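In this notebook, the sequence line spells out the residues, with the fold written below as integer tokens. This is how one looks.
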Amino acid sequence: MEIRIGITNSGRELSFETSQSADEVKAAVAAALDEGASHLSFTDIKGNSYFVPSANLAFVEIGTSEARRVGFVG
């Protein structure tokens, strides 16, 4: 699952792939915002951790979980 996160006052986006499902990511983001948590945390497929201040979230884009195609499609 690919995730892109926009952060206010930053010209860059945070983009990574996670093994979590789209529903798990949506639930984590919604819970953090509803509870007023100071940050969101994610772990990518390589084991790297990301902490994003929830007050600075501009957007969270959750990609599809479709496997990437390799080779030629004809």
User: Anything to note?
Assistant: The mean pLDDT is 88.
